[in-house]
Amino acid sequence: MKVILEAQHAVGHPQPRGVGHYALTLIQSLLKRRAFDYELTFFDYKREVGNLERAKEYFGVYDVPLNECIELDYRKASRDDNVWNMKSYNEWTNTNADIYHFMNIISIPTQIKGKPIATVLDLNWKAYPEGTSDFVRQLATMGLERLQYIQPNVITISNSARNELLEYSNIPFDKIHVSYPSYDEINLYPESSKANDYGDYIFFVGTFERKKNVTGIIAAFNQIAEKFKGIKLVLAGKPTWDDPTEIYEAINASPFKERIITLGYITVEQKRNLYSNALCFVFPSICEGFGIPVLEAMACGCPVITANNTSLPEVGGDAAAYVNARDTEQLAFEIERVITSVDLRQEMISKGFLQSKKFSWDKTAMQVETIYQTVMSRE
């Protein structure tokens, strides 16, 4: 069976995040297993942004065909259905396959020969529209319209994401398959060294956007900071499409702003150190398609406090402490409970190790391969 993996979002950015990270890691995991005859597709109009070089860097070791289309701008392909009236996806990319797996809701074309599968990470932009920029919402709306027109099989990354798709689209239940992603199992583990630059601290890592509820974390920290004078709040992450102004305003307005540290983008080595040495990791997100940082923290031996909504209980299992994302008093209470009890912290750390071991990218790839076989077996 020949399977085309759409690598656009894996190669389209020097530091893949979100969809890009998912696409890159899943594709590499599938190629390692070599269960099927794989090829990759991506666009780079007149080779203007260097996608081919990144494709060779990320996937060259696997010796698979890299089908690069330099005649079409991907921005146009993702927003203008007329390009598919001119040529099918097969013709633009000069490929033919049994299955085409598109990694993003905006990727899927309206004209293609072969069985299309699309990954939909979440429909948070529908469930929580105020947390998404107008630009992203516009692109995602076009993608959802295509998805409903084409009616492909869909892979979601949680049962919560599947429920969103059932609520906000006409894709039938039997065409929606769930396959959990994982975390960076090679590079994220407990560091034996307790050396760090911040002493005792509470940690958050993620994009600076409304749905991550960073302002809620700051408000909760304000409630405990006077009682725990030596503890800092370390926030790692960068803005995406969302305006981070309210986050920085909340930091500047805090009476404890000297103890709130913002790090911006951090390397995986920095992340491992920060998880390993934090008193706890807080992730009270308002909505998540999955929530990989929860697993990352657990794998590094860090107690996790997260929200009780969307996919997060699926990820955290019985190893996390849960709060209402919008209740900062409850978040402050849980932070205090976790950081003051050695026994509770150790119990959460032990359970977190067990929970994180339930996930792996190889398991994800194996599940996706089973989905390919299921799709091919249907008429």
Strand and helix map with partners:
Elements: E1 2-6, H1 8-11, H2 19-33, E2 37-43, H3 51-59, E3 66-69, H4 74-77, H5 82-86, H6 89-93, E4 99-102, E5 115-120, H7 124-127, H8 134-150, E6 153-156, H9 159-168, E7 176-178, E8 201-205, H10 214-225, E9 232-236, H11 245-253, E10 260-264, H12 268-277, E11 280-283, H13 292-299, E12 304-307, H14 312-316, E13 321-323, H15 328-340, H16 342-356, H17 361-377
Parallel strand pairs: 1-2, 1-4, 2-3, 4-5, 5-6, 6-7, 8-9, 8-11, 9-10, 11-12, 12-13
Record field, number of beta strands: 13
The SSE order reads EHHEHEHHHEEHHEHEEHEHEHEHEHEHHH
Mean pLDDT: 94
Give, in spatial order, the strands making up the sheet with the most strands.
3-2-1-4-5-6-7
**What is the fourth-level CATH superfamily of the largest domain?**
Glycogen Phosphorylase B
Could you describe the largest sheet, including whether it forms a barrel? 7 strands, parallel
- The CATH architecture name of the largest domain reads 3-Layer(aba) Sandwich
CATH fold group of the largest domain: Rossmann fold
Helical fraction: 40-55%
Radius of gyration: 21 Å
